[in-house]
């Protein structure tokens, strides 16, 4: 029986800028996105019917789950080539965190089906299909470092980020991405992050420049909706991190370090106050290229 195991990695935004609100209601963004070593594991198996099992009670256990939406999209696009599937989703990425947890599961299923069923789709073709299901999904198809523009679905690969060590804090509540964008007043943004400086830092492999250019214009909006997120960010700074940023629309906040040892010491200092803190790092292309494992082929 044909099966696949997929490691679906989370992301952070090193830079998130919003340029304007478009006529179609979406916001025009410019984001430097980075895959991180925090992942869900997806098992795909040919089955009599489409169904999903998961270890997480807080996500839909039906066809609304983004992993299942990927299955039905692929079945619709490639009739007769994609069998019914059982999806087992082992979630470790925090839900509604701003780390693209659902998007990466969706992308992982599409990548898995592409290989399992020998569809031969290119990365670009998969990205185009993925954009139908959500703005963050095309990035999750590719990565590990990319510029996302448009509503976030137009992806340009960037030079790989030198390894950064991260301490991630996910508060015990979620925030709704549409609410954060709804609360944003683009014309009142006074300070835009310097996306080009970050890209230049990546091109030059200049970690300090990358860290110094980190920024996220959604922070103010999320802080207004959930003031606790600002308290966490301030608290993380007080514990001695220089580069602290909210990821995506939040509420996850991360601290980034050049040196592993520094991140480990910081993590140990932070842990008593934030027991759920996660120590992780950015990932490279080689690790991403090994995401999908197909087995059971005769
Ligand atoms: P993004 O960073 O792309 O905005 P996020 O990290 O903020 O995403 P998700 O973890 O993707 O948020 O969850 C957003 C919503 O999607 C949740 O309310 C959840 O119920 C729903 N959802 C559907 N499928 C999944 C999935 N496979 N994993 C997590 N959430 C899912």
CATH class descriptor name of the largest domain: Alpha Beta
Quaternary organization: single chain
What CATH architecture of the largest domain would you give? 2-Layer Sandwich
Helix content: 25-40%
Helix count equals: 11
Structural class: alpha+beta
Morphology: globular
Ligands: adenosine-5'-triphosphate
Largest sheet: 8 strands, mixed
Compute the CA-based radius of gyration.
19 Å
Total beta strand runs: 12
**Low-pLDDT windows of residues:** none
How many discrete structural domains? 2
Q: Note the beta-strand portion.
A: 25-35%
Order of helices and strands: EEEHEHHHEEEHHHEHHEEHEHE
* Alpha-carbon distance between the two ends: 9 Å
Report the average pLDDT across residues: 96
Classify the fold: give the CATH topology of the largest domain: Ribosomal Protein S5, domain 2
What's the helix and strand layout?
Layout: E1 3-21, E2 27-46, E3 51-54, H1 66-77, E4 85-90, H2 101-116, H3 123-130, H4 137-141, E5 145-149, E6 154-157, E7 165-169, H5 177-182, H6 195-203, H7 207-212, E8 215-216, H8 219-225, H9 227-238, E9 244-246, E10 253-257, H10 260-270, E11 278-281, H11 285-289, E12 292-295
Parallel strand pairs: 1-8, 3-4
Antiparallel strand pairs: 1-2, 1-12, 2-4, 2-5, 5-6, 7-10, 7-11, 9-10
Helix pairs in contact: 1-2, 8-9
Adenosine-5'-triphosphate binds at residues 59-60, 65-67, 89, 95-103, 105, 136, 177, 248-249.
């Amino acid at each position: 029986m044909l099966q696949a195991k997929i490691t679906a990695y989370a992301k952070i935004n090193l830079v998130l800028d919003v340029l304007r609100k478009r006529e179609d209601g979406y916001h025009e963004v410019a984001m430097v996105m980075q895959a991180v070593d925090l992942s869900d594991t997806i098992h795909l198996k040919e089955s009599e019917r489409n169904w999903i099992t998961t270890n997480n009670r807080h996500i839909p256990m039906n066809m609304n789950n983004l992993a299942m939406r990927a299955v039905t999209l692929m079945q619709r696009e490639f009739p007769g080539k994609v069998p019914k599937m059982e999806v087992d989703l082992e979630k470790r990425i925090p839900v509604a965190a701003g780390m693209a947890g659902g998007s990466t599961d969706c992308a992982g299923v599409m990548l898995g089906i592409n290989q399992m069923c020998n569809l031969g789709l290119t990365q670009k073709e998969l990205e185009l299909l993925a954009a139908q299901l959500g703005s963050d999904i095309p990035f999750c198809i590719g990565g590990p470092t990319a510029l996302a523009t448009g509503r976030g679905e137009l992806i340009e690969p960037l030079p790989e980020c030198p390894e950064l060590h991260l301490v991630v804090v996910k508060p015990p509540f979620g925030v709704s991405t549409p609410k954060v964008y709804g609360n944003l007043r683009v014309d009142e943004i006074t300070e835009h992050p310097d996306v080009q400086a970050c890209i230049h830092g990546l091109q030059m492999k200049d970690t300090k420049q990358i860290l110094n250019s980190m920024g996220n214009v959604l922070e103010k909006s999320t802080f207004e909706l959930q003031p606790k997120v600002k308290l966490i960010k301030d608290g993380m700074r007080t514990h001695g991190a220089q580069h602290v940023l909210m990821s995506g629309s939040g509420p996850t906040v991360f601290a980034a370090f050049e040196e592993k040892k520094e991140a480990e010491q910081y993590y140990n200092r932070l842990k008593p106050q934030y027991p759920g803190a996660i120590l992780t790092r950015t990932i490279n292309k080689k690790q991403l290229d090994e995401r999908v494992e197909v087995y059971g082929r005769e």
